[in-house]
Amino acid sequence: MTVGTMHLLSEEHQELRRTVEKFAHEVVAPVIGDYYERCEFPYEIVRQMGEMGLFGLPFPEEYGGMGGDYFALCLALEELARVDNSVAITLEAAVSLGAMPIYRFGTAEQKQTWLPKLTSGEMLGAFGLTEAGGGSDVPGGMRTTAVLDGDEWVINGTKAFITNSGTRITGVIGVAAITGRREGPDGPKPEISTILVPSGTPGLTVSKKYSKVGWSASDTRELSFTDCRVPASNLLGERGRGYAQFLQTLDEGRVAIAAVSVGLAQGCVDESLAYARERHAFGKAIGAYQAIQFKIADMEARVHTARLAYYHAASKMLAGEPFKKEAAIAKLVASNAAMENARDATQIFGGYGFMNEYPVGRFYRDAKILEIGEGTSEVQRMLIARELGLAAL
After folding, report:
1. Does the active-site annotation cover 374?
2. Residue 65, C-beta contacts closer than 8 angstroms, at least 6 positions apart
3. Is the confidence at residue 6, as pLDDT, over 60?
4. How far apart are CA 189 and CA 182, in angstroms?
5. pLDDT in the model for residue 344
6. What percent of the chain has a predicted confidence (pLDDT) above 70?
7. Where is 224: in which H helix or E strand?
8. Pairwise CA distance, residues 31 & 292, whole Å
9. Which sign does the torsion angle of CA 129, 134, 136, 139 carry?
């Protein structure tokens, strides 16, 4: 293990990390390539992750959780991502985007209804935010609407790129929708609220899975809503606070995505070290050549720096301190490290690095989305600059 910051972990966190590392290498690694090639969701792996309590790591025991913290989730994500990103992102989206908003903003009844099944992994949650014409401009690009008709919300619109939205164990989707207009200093602004929509609700159509460049063993789909009716009590948190909820959710999610990115970057180091010792060319192991040594040294330096960045962001989050800037830095640095390490690992492996049967081939395909999902690299730079006070100049 090439982690120079292990002394920062409590014994409890170290034990969790070791447990997930063992699971990732003994259970996930031998079979995930086949799932990836078939673009098939790994239900059996997810079931075992549920039995381990991974979906309940940061939630209280009263809701079926493990009573841990968000950093524990990040450690689990990093270890899973060292082997495969599809499995890691399934856990990240289910917890950060699916269950966490219900825990943070839900009523007592909503928590009792949904969290026990979500924290056990028996059911997956999803978050319907992104729209095809919106991208990073969430309020400006949102077209999905929800109108209160008596004691029901009537939802119409379409969502794009929604993770965990179409599996056979998907149970609930938090849908961000325009529920009205509010006057602001610059004129009317959309009032955005979040509404819980159970899977199978009439009027909800789940499209077939996207054909994706990477994350091929995860579930990502388009959703459409046509006069989709749910009870008025399915409003999550306060009406009109959906955008604010989303911003808090993404701040936390960026720390988690940074952990996934670090895992992928570390996996590239792991695979490259093993290959550099085994592969021989011109009479000796390629790891004896300085060109390979320097490349792997740079890869390790990126991992180390990125890990420290997400550890720092997580520590501020758990201490209740502002962490928006640190989360953006962690996400930016870690996703860059993942992309650069995936490229270098593929180069070290040569032709074999271009084969999907090798983990580095999958890492190369998976890395790019880490610079896009939960806020592009450009958005992270905007956030950092804003936190430095430059936006007000």
Report:
1. yes
2. 53, 56, 57, 58, 59, 115, 119
3. no
4. 5
5. 98
6. 97
7. strand 220-231
8. 29
9. negative
Quickly list DSSP for 121-156.
Answer: TSSEEEEE---TTTTT-HHHH---EEEEETTEEEEE
Per-residue CA distances from 25 to 20, 110, 261, 307, 371 (Å): 9, 36, 18, 20, 26
Quick: pLDDT tens for 99-153: 999 999 999 999 999 999 999 999 999 999 999 876 667 777 799 999 999 999 9
The C-alpha atoms of residue 383 and residue 372 are separated, in whole angstroms, by 15
Average pLDDT, the chain: 94
CB count in 10 Å sphere of residue 271: 21
56 neighbors 66 (Cβ within 8 angstroms): yes
Report yes or no: 253 and 74 within 8 Å, Cβ to Cβ.
Answer: no
- To 10 degrees, what angle do helices 43-52 and 85-92 make? 50
Which of 78, 340, 374, 378 does the annotation list as catalytic?
Answer: 374
User: From CA 275, how far away is CA 295, in angstroms rounded?
Assistant: 13
Segment 309-331 mean pLDDT: 96
**With contact defined as beta carbons under 8 Å apart, do 155 and 123 qualify?**
no
Give the Cα separation of 151 and 289 in Å (integer): 71
pLDDT digits (tens, 9 = 90+) for 353-381: 999 889 999 999 999 999 998 889 999 99
Q: How far is the C-alpha of 83 from the C-alpha of 24, rounded, in Å?
A: 6
Give the pTM: 0.94
The answer to which of 14-23, 74-83, 114-123, 133-142 has the lowest mean pLDDT is 133-142
Residue 236 in tokens: 């999550």
Tokens of residue 27, six digits? 């259970």
pLDDT at 5 over 60: no
| Secondary structure class of 332 (helix, strand, coil) | helix
The answer to whether residue 339 scores a pLDDT higher than 60 is: yes
187-198 and 124-128 as β-strands: parallel, antiparallel, unpaired? unpaired
**Length of the chain counted residue by residue:** 393
Q: How far is CA 339 from CA 14, 307, 371, in A?
A: 27, 15, 8
Contact 335, 377 (CB under 8 A): yes
